[in-house]
Amino acid sequence: MEGASQVCRNCKRSMASTHVALHEAHCLLFLALCPECKEPVPQGKMDEHRENGHQETTECRERPAECKFCRAVVRLSKLETHEHHCGSRTELCLDCGQQVVVRMLAQHRKACPTEQAQRRAETSPAPEHVSPSGSCAALSEPLWPSGKWFG
């Protein structure tokens, strides 16, 4: 039954049945469907999306765009949702051993209590998108299987 698929009750995306429970738990907490375009939008950004997301634009919303956290290439129309989830992951700070939210890594490195981290932050501040694992692909698979979100 590996190939069976189901549809998320919230965002209406199709995915492998094995991923639905985890996806729906996360999706129901953080996403809502825009009533106008039917795209999943972070709940806290719905007003902004409705004001700015439906304006006529000359920019192609289906063009490739790079995630600032993991450097994965996704469609521009899905970038906001991807970065919301990707930046919400935690990574282990290799200097102090704390789990840090990815979107806060740059700030953490500047304030990290270890002397080694302080020197590194002063000489070469890390961009926000660099993480020890270098990618969120393995973590995002249960939430965005087989290109249904970004393909």
Automatic annotation (TrEMBL):
- Which Pfam families does the UniProt record give? TRAFD1-XIAF1_ZnF (PF21366)
Please report the stretch or stretches of sequence annotated as the TRAFD1/XAF1 zinc finger domain.
77-112
Of the GO CC terms on this record, one is: mitochondrion
SUPFAM superfamilies the record matches: TRAF domain-like
Instruction: List the InterPro entries.
Output: Innate_Immune_Apopt_Reg, TRAFD1-XIAF1_Znf, Znf_RING/FYVE/PHD
Annotated GO molecular function terms are: zinc ion binding
| Segments for region (Disordered) | 115-137
Name this protein carries in UniProt? XIAP associated factor 1
Q: Which organism is it from?
A: Molossus molossus (Pallas' mastiff bat)
